[in-house]
Amino acid sequence: MTAPTAGFAVETTKLLDEAKIWETESLEMENIGKKADVLEFTDQGLYTLFIPKYHLMVNAVVARCNEALVRMGEIRDTLGHIATTYEATEERHAQQLGTVSP
To answer: This protein's superkingdom (predicted)?
Structure first.
């Protein structure tokens, strides 16, 4: 009979690598939000009728980018927490098994 965990492996490094990807992408969303934030027109001129709607669109893009930055950070943190918790639990179990006498 094979052990219940036979063929089962958890690679916490993969989770941590994925967390780094989410960190990198969240910073990219922050950059996009900053770039969009400076797109508001300050001159009225010929485009006076379009400026309020345009500003609403720019503000919506900035808001979504800021929201993405927060949510992607939460995903990154969750992946890191899962990997750290798993490693700590495995270490604790290994220590407990090491103290069991046959």
So the answer is: Bacteria
pLDDT confidence bin for 93, thresholds 50/70/90 = confident
Q: Look-up: residue for tokens 């098994």?
A: 97
pLDDT at res. 25: 96
First-to-last alpha carbon distance for the chain, in angstroms, is 20
Domain ranges of the chain: 13-42+51-96
d(CA 90, CA 79): 17
Tally Cβ neighbours within 10 Å of residue 94. Answer: 9
10 Å Cβ neighbour count for 87? 14
Decide if 5 contacts 51 (C-beta within 8 A). Answer: no
